[in-house]
Write a structure and sequence with these properties.
Length: 309
């Protein structure tokens, strides 16, 4: 009897180890590359981080994806996106990782509304839409584009039924599924007033009962962590450090590296004193020119983004 119990224990332990290893992977998160303005301080900073990101990918065999959370270009012009493709997408594709993009406000700063929206067109063509979701190794990733527009939002021309997309998407995966969310606008601290308090309240109400591992943002050219409303882990990666996130089945560990390889932990960058800024009623007129639907797109870990040089 004891022998059977011991055998069952060993078998259960081996199954657990197999499952644990099967669902372990690493992903990197960065933002605000501002390609197209060679004199922009963040363009210089982020370009210097890319070799270190590629080094991390090369050193660890389990890096599955790279997320870039908006302001990929400085104004969104086609030639800037071509430069972004050459400087960022092609090296990352050649490194063998999945790449997932969100757009930022700078990716819409075109001179005329009728100009080709290169960044937005690429995101919609590659991932199905500007807001999309996908699953990797049991983790549900959600891209909310520039920020998670909801029923309280007036910054885009979506019909009301489409503004409940995030709520419907999360309902499909359930409250136990581990979830990572990324978008451009930061939630707290400087420049967090680019979306309204009502929009933030609606976003929080939508996600508070789910298993949110982390929300990644950019926009502010500063890197910090925060426990939003004492519950939701948030990391802004717009500054000197990019995120290196390790998922190991039971949870997510987020660390940070700079261009020199200096490593910071979550707690070393923790700024719980940062507050949500009161909205300044900013409205991005460029995004109002867009006419797009938001749909759920499921992607697999086998997906590789194809970029033509």
């Amino acid at each position: 009897m004891k022998k059977n119990n011991f055998t069952s224990f060993i078998l259960s332990f081996l199954i657990f180890c197999f499952y644990f290893n099967l669902h372990a992977f690493t992903f990197l998160v960065n933002s605000d590359t501002h390609v197209g303005n060679d004199n922009h301080s963040n363009y210089i900073l982020k370009k210097a981080q890319l070799p270190k990101m590629l080094e991390v990918i090369d050193d660890f065999n389990d890096v599955s994806l790279v997320v870039l959370a908006g302001d990929l270009t400085d104004t969104g012009h086609d030639w800037q996106f071509q430069q972004f493709s050459n400087e960022w997408l092609i090296p990352l594709v050649n490194a063998g990782v999945n790449i997932f993009l969100a757009h930022g406000n700078h990716d819409t700063y075109l001179d005329h509304w009728y100009e080709k929206k290169a960044v937005l067109d690429y995101i919609k063509k590659t991932y199905g839409n500007l807001h999309y979701s996908f699953n990797i190794e049991g983790v549900h990733f959600v891209c909310c584009g520039k920020y998670p527009e909801g029923t309280k939002s007036s910054s885009c021309c979506l019909p009301s039924c489409k503004k409940t997309w995030l709520k419907k998407d999360l309902e499909k995966v359930g409250k136990m599924t581990p979830i990572v969310i990324f978008f451009h606008y930061n939630i707290v601290g400087n420049f967090s007033d680019w979306w309204t308090q009502e929009e933030k309240d609606e976003f929080y109400d939508t996600i508070e009962d789910y298993n949110i591992l982390c929300v990644f943002t950019g926009h502010w050219h500063y890197t910090f962590t925060h426990m939003w409303r004492e519950q939701i882990p948030v990391a802004c990666v717009g500054g000197s450090y990019f995120a290196v996130a390790d998922y190991e089945g039971a949870g997510l560990t987020v660390g940070f590296q700079d261009k020199y390889g200096d490593v910071k932990t979550w707690n070393q960058l923790l700024r719980n004193d940062y507050q949500e800024k009161i909205s300044r009623n900013f409205q991005d007129d460029q995004i109002n020119q867009l006419d797009y639907d938001i749909t759920n797109t499921t992607l697999t870990q086998d997906l590789k983004v194809t970029v033509t040089a």
